[in-house]
Amino acid sequence: MIAQQGAFDGATAPRWGYETSFWQFRRPAFWLFVITLVITGLDFLAQQMQMISVVPGAWLTTVILLVPYAVPVVAIIYFLDLYEHEPISILAAAVLWGGIAATTLAMYTNTPLMELIFKVTGDPTFTQNWSAALTAPFVEEGFKAMGVILLVAIARPELDDLLDGFVWGAMVGIGFLLVEDVLYFVRAFAETGTYDTLFGIAMDDVALGALAYDRARERGVGQAVPFS
Amino acid sequence: MTDPSLEGQESAPANPAAPAPTPEPAATSAPEPAAPAAWGTPAAPAPAAPAPAPAPVPAPVPVPAPATWGAPAALTAPPSAPAAPAAAPATWGAAASPAPVSPAPSAWGAPAAAPAPAAPAPGWGAPTAAAGWGAPAGPMPGTVVAAWGPPATQPMPMPKPPGSTGMRTTILCAVIMIGVVFGANIVNAAVPMPGDPGPISMGPAVPAEPGASANPNQPPVSPVNPGPVTPGEGLAIGSGVVIYPTGGWTAVPADAGVTAFQKASVTLVFIPLAWNGAPEELLVKYRDLFFQGGKFQSNDPTSGTIGGGVIPAASVGYAGNIDGTQVDGAIVVGAKNGTGLVINILGPQGSLTNVTDDLNKVLGTVEFTGGQG
Description:
The complex is a heterodimer of chains A (228) and B (373).
Chain A: H1 28-54, H2 56-78, H3 88-121, H4 124-154, H5 162-192, H6 196-208, H7 215-224
Helix pairs in contact in A: 1-2, 1-3, 1-4, 2-5, 2-6, 3-4, 3-5, 4-5, 4-7, 5-6
Chain B: H1 4-11, H2 73-76, H3 167-190, E1 227-228, E2 235-238, E3 241-243, E4 250-252, E5 259-263, E6 266-274, H4 279-291, E7 295-298, E8 302-306, E9 311-322, E10 325-336, E11 339-348, H5 356-365, E12 367-368
Antiparallel strand pairs in B: 1-4, 2-3, 3-12, 4-5, 5-6, 6-11, 7-9, 8-9, 9-10, 10-11
């Protein structure tokens, strides 16, 4: 039986029989989500087109390499909630936020912060060793979390329990990871001219798993424990 | 008679955290005959179901105070307990009369009262003045709070009002995103580079090809003023060469004929000159001069194009050590129609990955505006 509206509306009871979608046109958060996605999407497309035009083979190779990695991971996340699978529209929005909005916003924030670290310290070695660890975990994880917060503001009734939040967050994380890896792969190819590094990065990601904990956090932890 | 405690446990709800029963509207649910609310002790004869008291405000869902399993009433509710008339049973196992209302707010884990409520729930947390009891919301004195549920005094989480659209959350998210992105860029632009890096001398050693007369009609250009560059704005750096730097780079002082930029710890140098030969030749010549006195290793030059595919070019990557710092670098040379352009980018080991996109854009947009045709 579905609880009556008003009596258990909101956070009081899991409502597994109640399903809503991402398309909540009356929610301001929905429009902020969409507008951010569109603006960052234009930049995202420009980035991808540039990579395709410069190294089309490497770009295509990265996509081919990532698909067999992404599909089972997404499936595992999707089927984690045995009692109620999350609506596809919300999960798709989460992946798009992680892959497009979070990556683009993080890119335009990480770079100036890294430069700022160099300006403040004046030490290129310190900047090289620590700038990514000092900026990326906070910036990237923050923008990922922003997507989850907006999704909650959009489709609050769909968030039934902690597992739902995990699934939404994991979808944002996997979206971010996939797009980030394309960038790493293409850069590696552009620098070395070979595909050797691509497989190394792919194996690194697969081995380290990185669903919600992406490479940036791994770097942060790695830098904090230099003797590990 | 079985052990009251055991009997109580057997009859206990399987899942204490299960949601409370949905209240029924008063108009459709007459008070049911009181179910034996006490387990393990003889229940008092259930009185006839009283009609719900005419309450000025709707009464909340009747939920008794946390119970103790099967404890007799005599042990849990002392005579002096401030129980109001017809108060909810304070403990499981206590003989109880059907309570039309209860002052104790519901809490997850607390077992629900047996009798159905006589009035619709007004909303969580709404105090009732139905009977004017002023009965304490907490457990009765002497009551042992069950370990599996929070105390009755813990209020339910307040649900969002039905009219809430999350506007404040949205505004807050927008402000944070805009503030972080623009704030980082504004602060970075406001902070100057640390000290004067000094003139960068990587160009004078490159000899122009004897006899070359590149762009004789090109007017001399002024050195690029030190400071942040404007992204996408063309800069004439001499010999008819125009480059379009990307954002984030800062022009720094350099020797005559050399234009240099810095971004974080990466240095990007442009050296336009007259050159009639192949770019591969200029590349090897420059590389050998640049490597003199240093510890560098490079791979074999590769040929390609720059300037959107119209300028033949050659490139080589290198690694080495400068003043104890491991550096990575790359030299790209373009030559066409008597004009040569040497581009040298270097930075601490691994740092070039941060500027690969910038370098690709600059290389793709460089123009040779003059030349011998």
